[in-house]
Amino acid sequence: MAVLLGKDTRVLVQGMTGRAGTFYTDLAMRYGSTYVAGVRPGKAGTTHLDLPVFDGVREAAEATGANASLVLVPPHKAAAAMIEAIEAGIGLVVCVTERVPVHDMLRVRAALNGSETQLVGPNSQGVLAPGLCKIGVMSTADAQPGRVGIVSRSASLTSEIVAQTTAAKLGQSTTIGVGGDPIHGIGFRRCLELFKDDPATEGVILIGEIGGSEEEAAADYLASVDYGKPVVALVVGRHAPAQRRMGHAGTLAVLGGGTADAKLRRLQEAGAVIARNADEVAGLMRKALGPA
């Protein structure tokens, strides 16, 4: 099993005919994921990568049975694309677009209220269930099916930890990149809930960053339940200067809040195993899980 997606996931791509859409759709299909349609206004009735192209998401979903969407459109159009997918009743929407305006994301957040859609992103690497399905731009080079769920705000560190867990013969059940923007879809807490209920996930690796409150929300959740599975947490940015933005829009520590040490302290108090450096993560998870 996996969380969010699986063998029954049928993906449509909003923006499939563009350069990025073409490249990543082709990669995902070569990996074995089931992609069924593209959406590009004005190109209905054509085909691209041997898939039908539709003017709208609802039309595409009704014709193909798509239940997931990958949003690969420019930042100024990304919110409208996400809202269209939400209003069409798509169960999973993954947006990898960077630099979506914050005000636009407030409209997306409002559209999510009361819907059954789970949004991953924006500014996300996507979601990968090794051997089953890939939605997004995440590398599959080192991914292997396995026992560990990974949820991350950092794209580069995701690739590193996937490679580590594969080398340690742990593998991954599902890897989720929640994105680095301050306003986004599902976060650490929701991913921890999903992994808790997934029998294929025996342990969880959480990769955080300075800024925002994702890690604190995860700590509050872990402290409130008997999680029953080991959680290894890595939060990077311990040496970053305060009050200075470091890459991601959400990566900003102000007036002592959102620092790496504060986040790690909260997570440790909630029962997580703390990795001080990236190269410790897989070893700590293997030790926490015990013999296979």
UniProtKB/TrEMBL annotation:
Keywords: Ligase, Nucleotide-binding, Tricarboxylic acid cycle. GO terms for biological process: tricarboxylic acid cycle. The keyword Zinc-finger does not apply. GO terms for molecular function: nucleotide binding; succinate-CoA ligase (ADP-forming) activity; succinate-CoA ligase (GDP-forming) activity. The keyword Nucleotide-binding applies. SUPFAM superfamilies: NAD(P)-binding Rossmann-fold domains, Succinyl-CoA synthetase domains. Gene3D superfamilies: NAD(P)-binding Rossmann-like Domain, Succinyl-CoA synthetase domains. SMART domains: CoA_binding. Residues 4-100 form the CoA-binding domain. The active site is at H248 (tele-phosphohistidine intermediate). It comes from the Bacteria. GO terms for cellular component: succinate-CoA ligase complex (ADP-forming). Belongs to the succinate/malate CoA ligase alpha subunit family. This is Succinate--CoA ligase subunit alpha. It comes from Paracoccus siganidrum. The gene is sucD.
